[in-house]
Write a structure and sequence with these properties.
By secondary structure, the protein is of the alpha/beta class. It contains 10 helices and 14 strands. The chain folds into 2 domains: 207 residues, DHBP synthase (Alpha-Beta Complex); 89 residues, Rossmann fold (3-Layer(aba) Sandwich), CATH 3.40.50.11030. Strands 1-8-2-3-7-4-6-5-9-10 form a 10-stranded mixed beta sheet, with helices on both faces. A 4-stranded parallel beta sheet has the order 11-14-12-13. The longest helix has 17 residues. Bound molecules: threonylcarbamoyladenylate (TXA) and magnesium ion (MG). Threonylcarbamoyladenylate (TXA) binds next to strand 5 and strand 6. InterPro entries: DHBP_synth_RibB-like_a/b_dom (IPR017945), Sua5-like_dom (IPR006070), Sua5/YwlC_C (IPR038385), Sua5_C (IPR005145), T(6)A37_SUA5 (IPR010923), TC-AMP_synthase_SUA5 (IPR050156).
């Protein structure tokens, strides 16, 4: 399959909408990461997402809609907590889990489950595309399963080129990590995946159950099927170490004959030929993280040493992604 590369102008958005309407696969920018879209009401189209990504069928997709009314139309009942969070945070990087209307969202999108994940993105190209299609669009991150999420059209091309119909290029994404996921099917709500919208901000609006602790979760059923430990993983082996131990870890890797890269942040000087120095604030760090990991992977690093970030709650979303990237498979 030839993958069309589309600039994000009006004609391209119309073209992308046409491909989606006839059941094709289009990658598009959102404020978090690029998504791989297909019709959420069409099982055959949605199945194409799982095929292109090599995604296990048990891992459900997020459905993207242009506004709160369209979200309500997909839900079997709309809890008061959903309304509060939607009014306060949408459009934006927040995903809500609600009961699914089976006549509106294909079972394959929800991995056969009774719930559906819904979000209203704020990115202007995503919004223009959703308006033009006029249908709910299922879209996971636009990468092969277990690879690093894409924050540029080039990342999408590298991972899915030749497997999907088109890529809408909207430049680098601003948030850089995936949306916060909140389950509002029961009260108190549960934060299933931390993100740019903090647990604190959620808790200021609705009652929230104490941190589910995804990475270190007790052996109960994983609350979000795709949040198993090794999900945001580069191909390289990742070591997450205290900042002061980065140098030593790089030396050890080099002595073992590895090509080692480093990810540090703030005012530290990045160490060695394959070193990425990220901003010292959580939002700036998150925006830059995946591009840094993609660069180190492209440079052929087989070991990536990452300086651990602060324990502060403001770093929860970043720490979650780093812990997953460094989890042993
Ligand atoms: O920012 C984002 O959320 C991006 C952009 C493209 O919107 N999308 C994204 O999708 O990160 P994906 O598929 O990479 O991650 C979706 C997560 C998975 O962990 C999946 O298991 C979870 O959402 N999920 C989807 N539907 C669910 C449901 N009904 N119940 C619980 N978790 C669900
Ligand atoms: Mg993903």
């Amino acid at each position: 399959m030839r993958t069309e590369r589309l600039a994000a102008d009006a004609a391209s958005i119309a073209r992308a909408a046409e491909i989606l309407r006839r059941g094709g696969l289009v990658a598009f920018p959102t404020e978090t990461v690029y998504g791989l879209g297909a019709r959420a009401d069409d099982a055959r189209a949605a199945r194409g997402i799982f095929e292109a990504k090599g995604r296990p069928p048990g891992n459900p997709l997020i459905v993207h809609v242009p506004d709160v009314a369209s979200a309500r139309a997909l839900a079997d009942g709309w809890p008061a907590d959903a309304e509060r969070l939607a009014q306060a945070m949408w459009p934006g990087p927040l995903t809500l889990i609600v009961a699914r209307r089976p006549d509106r969202v294909a079972g394959v999108v929800a991995a056969g489950g009774p719930t559906v994940a819904i979000r209203v993105p704020v990115h202007p190209i995503a919004r223009a595309l959703l308006d033009a299609v006029g249908l709910p669009i299922a879209a996971p991150s636009a990468n092969r399963s277990t690879e690093i999420s894409p924050t540029t059209a080039e990342h999408v091309e590298k991972s899915l080129g030749g497997r999907i119909d088109a890529i809408l290029d909207g430049g680098p994404t601003a948030v850089g990590i995936e949306s916060t996921i909140v389950d509002v099917t029961r009260s108190p709500a549960r934060v299933l995946r931390p993100g740019h919208v903090t647990a604190e901000a959620i808790a200021a609006l609705v009652p929230v159950q104490a941190a589910a602790g995804l990475v270190t979760a007790p052996a109960e059923r994983a609350p979000s099927p795709g949040t198993h430990a090794r999900h945001y993983a580069p191909r390289a082996q990742v070591a997450l170490v205290p900042a002061h131990a980065v140098r030593g870890e790089l030396d050890r890797a080099a002595q073992a004959g590895s090509r080692a890269g480093a990810v540090e942040y703030g005012s530290r000087t990045a160490t060695g030929p394959h070193a990425e120095l990220l901003p010292g604030d959580p939002a700036g760090y998150a925006a830059a993280l995946y591009a840094a990991l993609h660069r180190l992977e492209d440079a052929g690093c087989d070991v990536i040493v990452i300086a651990a970030v602060p324990e502060d709650p403001a770093w929860d979303a970043v720490r979650d992604r780093l812990t997953r990237a460094s989890a042993t498979p």
